Amino acid sequence: MMIYCTNNVPKWNYISISGYHIREAGSSAVQELAFTLADGFYYVEMGKKARLDVDMFAPRLSFFFNSSINFFEEIAKMRAARRIWATALKEKYGAKTKRAMMLRFHTQTSGYTLTWQQPHINIVRTAFEGLAAV
Q1: Rounded Cα gap, residues 40 and 32, in angstroms
Q2: Domain range enclosing 11
Q3: β-bridge mates for residue 104, sequence order
């Protein structure tokens, strides 16, 4: 699929690597980030193994993270994710373009922090989680 999409639909983001479900299952922010980036690096290695140019396929990878209630931890997680991804793509996988080193991601606010007993407070929680992801 990576070979076909890289060669025939070069502007389509054909792989979305999700960490959201990992966090919802009870992991910490650090574990979510570690497992999700490990999955992403696996895709990069598979692309390189298929003899694809990392500068051609890496910009098409996207990530899906969870944003939970710990405001500063979430901000740090997103910043760390971008730095780790860019550094690894450049130093380990030989990426040359900024687009290849860019971490493209989507964030969804957490579901496990919400309670049915406090629907109005859930609005505040979700807004706070969303703000951390900006």
Answers
A1: 12
A2: 2-133
A3: 62
Cβ atoms of 89 and 54 within 8 Å: the answer is yes
Cβ proximity of 130 and 67 under 8 Å: yes
CB neighbours of 30 closer than 8 A, spacing ≥ 6? 77
Q: Give the pLDDT of residue 10.
A: 85
**pLDDT tens readout for residues 21-62:** 999 999 999 999 999 999 999 999 999 999 999 999 999 999
Please tell me the pTM assigned to this model. Answer: 0.91
Q: For residue 92, which of 48, 28, 128 has the smallest C-alpha distance?
A: 48
Do the bridges between strand 61-67 and strand 104-109 make them parallel or antiparallel, or are there none, so unpaired?
Answer: parallel
Q: What is the pLDDT averaged over residues 64-89?
A: 97
Is the per-residue pLDDT at 134 higher than 90?
Answer: no
Quote the CA–CA distance of 84 and 80 in Å, as a whole number: 6
Task: From residue 46, give the alpha-carbon distance in Å to each of 14, 70, 93, 128.
Answer: 14, 34, 11, 37
Q: Report CA 94 to chain centroid distance, whole Å.
A: 20
Domain count, the chain: 1
